[in-house]
Write a structure and sequence with these properties.
With 371 residues, this protein is of the alpha/beta class. The protein has two domains: 114 residues, Rossmann fold; 230 residues. 43% of the residues lie in helices and 15% in strands. The strands form two sheets. It has a seven-stranded parallel beta sheet with strand order 7-8-6-5-9-10-11, with helices on both faces. A four-stranded parallel beta sheet has the order 2-1-3-4, sandwiched between helices. α3 links the parallel β3 and β4. α2 packs across α3, α6 packs parallel to α10 and α6 crosses α14. The longest helix is centred in the first third of the chain and has 20 residues. The protein starts with 5 loop residues before the first strand and ends in a 14-residue tail after the last helix.
Length: 371
């Protein structure tokens, strides 16, 4: 079940991004999905890319997706993945059509058909068990750990108690909290996998000569009052509430059942959002101290902030203002209710700040070198 009803225009590889941008300019109901790479990728890196692109093309918020490539084989590979995931897709090859002009003409014809089909959709009530919501934080500061993330955690708990699903990730921002999270995992094998996933990101940093233990690598976190990655992690994991954890998902993998899940995806906002959305999240709740403005093109991304200073500075990018908790005007539970009520309105069609401003981006993580 989707909470948006749009049509995607996806580049199978970066060499057709200009064509995809042109095609997507004709209607607000079209979503532009450019490619990060798509060529020269091998092995697990290519596998991750194709799985993620296929899942994005089949996202529930899309009524259909036109997959555009230079040579037809690139679009065919992604189309195969999308169809397996239940997507409605069409393909367009710039080489087959014979250049930009003819590809634009044929592409517009395809998209007109897809938009017409999408317009036949009827709004229906959605129950919580049909919802999957991503949990994200970025530009974190002291108010994130004290207010915004705990408020998200309360909303996540309520969603899960109602039969829904929530997904959190950013393993590097779980460093120091391994024991706390492990104790919440139902399956011992999955508990061990969760710890190994967190450890993997620490090892990635060590391979590059960086020890994250006892330090904080980002200047905005330091300016926001966070002293170490462990302190940051304690605030970050609070957005996952208190529910038991079902297991660990690969990058862009969809949950197999309802409940709370942990995804293996890096903390950089655009990459992380892309992973959560490829995993089927229809919407994302994104807490932020310094107001990271980015959202994902496919899933409405709510920006939730409790820092009065940054709300004054970056207010156009904030969806839910929780600073009254800091000033003592409302409780944390009232703050959570504000987030939940906003989420419901967004699910019913209200635009987020990222959607209104067009501050949206998609990007898939690389785990290998190009050849």
């Amino acid at each position: 079940m989707g909470v948006r009803n749009r049509v995607g225009v996806m580049a199978a590889a970066d060499n057709v991004n200009p064509l995809v941008r042109r095609l997507s300019e004709t209607s607000d109901s079209l979503v532009c999905l450019t490619a990060s790479y798509g060529r020269g990728q091998l092995g697990k890196d290519l596998e991750l890319y194709l799985r993620t692109m296929g899942n994005l093309a089949a996202h529930p918020n899309l009524a259909g997706c036109l997959i555009v490539s230079f040579e037809p084989e690139s679009a065919a590979r992604i189309s195969e993945q999308a169809v397996k995931a239940g997507g409605q897709v069409q393909r367009l090859s710039m080489l087959v059509e014979g250049g930009m002009t003819r590809a634009l003409e044929r592409g517009h014809e395809c998209l007109a058909e897809m938009l017409e089909a999408a317009s036949a959709a009827v709004h229906e009530p959605i129950s919580p068990e049909l919802l999957t919501v991503g949990l994200e934080c970025g530009g974190s500061d002291a108010t994130s750990g004290i207010v915004a993330n705990p408020a998200l955690g309360l909303v996540a708990d309520a969603l899960i108690d109602s039969g829904g699903t929530a997904v959190f990730s950013e393993p590097v921002e779980c460093l120091g909290c391994e024991a706390l999270l492990k104790a919440r995992v139902e399956d011992p094998a999955e508990a061990a996998r969760l710890v190994e996933t967190i450890k993997k990101y620490q090892e990635i940093a060590l391979e590059q000569g960086v020890d994250l233990t006892g330090v904080n690598p980002t200047s905005d976190n330091i300016a926001g009052g966070l002293s170490t990655i462990e302190e940051k992690s304690l605030g970050a994991v609070s957005k996952a509430g208190s529910a038991s954890i079902k297991g660990v998902l690969a990058y862009g993998e969809a949950p197999a059942a309802s409940g709370l899940w942990f995804m293996d995806a890096p903390a950089a906002a655009v990459e992380n959002l892309t992973a959560l959305v490829a995993g089927g999240c229809q919407a994302v709740m994104f807490s932020t101290g310094s107001v990271n403005p980015v959202g994902h093109p496919l899933a409405p991304t709510l920006k939730i902030c409790a820092n009065p200073e940054y709300i004054r500075l970056m207010g156009e990018h904030v969806d839910v203002d929780l600073s009254p908790v800091i000033t003592g005007e409302i409780t944390l539970y009232e703050a959570a209710r504000r987030v939940a009520e906003k989420l419901i309105r967004v699910i019913n069609g209200e635009l987020t700040a990222a959607e209104r401003t067009g501050f949206i981006e998609t990007r898939i993580s690389r785990i290998g070198r190009s050849v």
